[in-house]
Specification:
This protein is of the alpha/beta class. It has helices at residues 14-26, 40-50, 59-63, 80-89, 104-115, 131-141, and strands at residues 5-10, 30-36, 54-56, 70-73, 94-96, 121-123, 175-177, 183-185. The chain has a six-stranded parallel β-sheet with strand order 3-2-1-4-5-6, sandwiched between helices. Strands 7-8 form a two-stranded antiparallel sheet. The protein is globular. It binds NADP nicotinamide-adenine-dinucleotide phosphate.
Amino acid sequence: MTDKIRWGILSTANIGRRRVIPAFKLARNGVVAAVASRSLERAQAFAADLDIPTAYGSYEELLNDPNINAIYNPLPNSEHALWSIRCAEAGKPVLCEKPLASDAAEAQHMVDAFASRGVLLAEGFMYRFHPQAVKIKEMVENGALGTFNTINATFTFPIRTEDDIRMQTGLAGGWRVDGCGLLLHQCDAADDG
Ligand SMILES: NC(=O)c1ccc[n+]([C@@H]2O[C@H](COP(=O)([O-])OP(=O)(O)OC[C@H]3O[C@@H](n4cnc5c(N)ncnc54)[C@H](OP(=O)(O)O)[C@@H]3O)[C@@H](O)[C@H]2O)c1
């Protein structure tokens, strides 16, 4: 047994491969113990590339693994609620990719499913914890940047292929206009661009 968090990775997603698993490996408090895919071959290839000891050919097997303490969920947006809630039912805490859910009702359903079981749910919304953001907050609060009347911020990133899951409306990707006429974009901060 180890006192480190034993992470299970739900799918062979790019964001896991490129960003999150390398970060888990650098962390002092966790290890990446298993990956699951809809295809055993894909899971095994991913596990071999990233030096992950266990590969499963279904998401259910990962959820049923008693040696896994927590799940990282980087599935397409449309699958976040379904599989995160199944993790909660299995008693496993989840770090879910953003956006957490497709709308407020679905997000509330997720929060309720975790809260009622006393299981932790977190959205992978990292900027609030980044040392740069913490420093800026400190500088705003101590007046180092003067007095603010307005703050204007924009964030954009390129998606280079139309078949990217983040562009598929059937997978809760893309964009939409809300009731106030505001253009709501999916917000992904870790794209290569
Ligand atoms: N890419 C980024 O820079 C980035 C940044 C921030 C947040 N995110 C979020 O992270 C999540 C994953 O994004 P990604 O770009 O890493 O996606 P991706 O590479 O396309 O990976 C998604 C994974 O989900 C699994 N999957 C299950 N059902 C699927 C379906 N119907 N269609 C396609 N794949 C399916 C697949 O794994 P298996 O085949 O192994 O089962 C696939 O590898 C999204 O919620 C996205 O918003 C991405």
